[in-house]
Amino acid sequence: MEDTKDMNKVLGRNIAEARRRAKLTQTQVGEGMERYIGHTWSKQVVSFVERGHRQLDANELLMLAAIVRAPVYELMLLGDGESIKLPSGFQMDAGTVRQHVAGDVSSTPLALDTLQHFEEVASIAEQLASRARGAIRALDRKPKTKRGKS
To answer: Would you say residue 109 has pLDDT above 60?
Structure first.
């Protein structure tokens, strides 16, 4: 059974693990942010990040990777059996995420396949709508008959 997560929770967990491997406290990570953004992060902000309750922008992710001495790609990896659920509801399994993070997307034309699928669905929906409009027009042209009283 797959364990579905939000990507922010995955990043947070991996940042926390990298921080512990680097033998840093949350306070030290927060203080390290001053070098990059001009002010420190409180221990509470670091805790929010590590619990996946604060979304990171690309700059913050890069800065945190530098502070905890971990490659960015490592912070984005899911564990075996995990998947992430994107805001659209689309899910990606650990292997697919690993391929995209590692840059090996030649065997996973995910975005293109998904786009083509949505285009096909939209085309079918338009065909059905066109048929429905035609049927409605045909009914509107049909002479109406009066029903007799019973």
So the answer is: no
